[in-house]
Amino acid sequence: MSNDISTSSSYLDSITWQDTQVATTEEESDALTQEDFFSLLTQQLSYQDPSNPADNDQMIAQMTNFTMAQGITDLNTNFESLASSMTSNSALQASTLVGKQALLESNTLELGESGEAKGSAVAEEAVDNLTIKVTDASGQLVRTIDMGTQAAGAVRFSWDGNNEAGERLPEGEYTITAEGSTNGEFSSLPVATFKNIESVNINGSSGIIINTKEGAVRLTDVAEIA
């Protein structure tokens, strides 16, 4: 009984394989190749009326149209190959970003178990008495960093993770604010902090997307990778 089942299965598989081969052959035969075109052109010339030969301009137009169509097909194939190669290269480059840090506009500072937490304040013009204030989850001010007078541009700062008494604070998220005076008037400044890149993905329309604890952002919106 088992032999009959095996034989029947093999027979059905062979039929399926033959059907697939026939379908594939028929699909391939639908395409008009350059050899097919010139074969048809030769047939056309062999059956033409000697007293009324084919118009040379018409023949040249037919050959030109076919050549252009073939060229466009080859160009599309090359573009597809190039796009595939570029996607592969982008994926390879994106994979190297995982584990690094991205500087993003955010007032949340991530403090690890050890080491410093870094960020940047952006001054549109020179500022005096620039200060960076760090508060914990309860809103309590735990550290003030005096940056003094700074020129316009991005002003880097780092926090050692200690409070005013020099004691190491627990790891976690802290909130930072930046404030400085220009022409005697104090104002808040935008800040950016480094976020750990947890993963990346590639979006056809948006390019490379990096994922951090705070969410996803396009690579083009990242100020710096460290």
Automatic annotation (TrEMBL):
Keywords: Bacterial flagellum biogenesis. Residues 89-222 form the FlgD Tudor-like domain. One of its GO terms (biological process) is bacterial-type flagellum organization. Residues 106-183 form the FlgD/Vpr Ig-like domain. It comes from the Bacteria. Gene3D superfamilies: 2.30.30.910, 2.60.40.4070. Required for flagellar hook formation. May act as a scaffolding protein. Belongs to the FlgD family. This is Basal-body rod modification protein FlgD. It comes from Pseudoalteromonas espejiana. The lineage of its organism: Bacteria, Pseudomonadati, Pseudomonadota, Gammaproteobacteria, Alteromonadales.
